[in-house]
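Example 3.
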Amino acid sequence: MPIDPLKFRKALGYFATGVTIVTGLTPERIPVGVTVNAFTSVSLDPPLILICLDNATGCLGAFCEGDKFCVNILGEDQQALSEDFAGPQEHKFKDRTFDTWESGCPILPGCLVNLECTRTETINGGDHFIVLGQVDRIEHASEGRPLLYFQSAYNGVLK
Ligand SMILES: Cc1cc2nc3c(=O)[nH]c(=O)nc-3n(C[C@H](O)[C@H](O)[C@H](O)COP(=O)(O)O)c2cc1C
């Protein structure tokens, strides 16, 4: 039976996720970033994570072909940052300061977690690409609550 795309979308929206901003560099080493909730831990040993990126993402090449990328996991007070990185690329790093580690990919301040990764594989997944990364470096906050995304809306953790 064919799947109704709207029903599929609605159904997947019941799966609450955190929100990340994935950052990378173009071949010219220009910083790029995308808000991504399709982030998953994959393996503890070796330490692997994955992200899924829409084929239509403007800066796709930075993640599907670049060697390195970073994942910044957002806290509950970072909805505005999430919205900025879901908008037009030219505004994302305008007047924004960030740190860099060894890869040079942007490490966004104030996040719950920052991960620096080496891309190990890019897999075709329908209208998305699945990008698998091995984690090279981790920093995390000692406390804090995540920004959540549920039924196409932002949320905090329910008590
Ligand atoms: C909460 C939220 C989660 C998102 N998750 C994803 C995702 O997992 N994968 C993806 O490709 N786009 C996702 N997007 C959309 C992208 O952030 C947006 O299309 C992207 O910034 C476009 O980048 P571009 O300007 O390089 O095309 C999400 C947007 C929001 C608001």
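Residues 24 and 51 are 13 Å apart (CA to CA). The longest helix spans residues 5-12.
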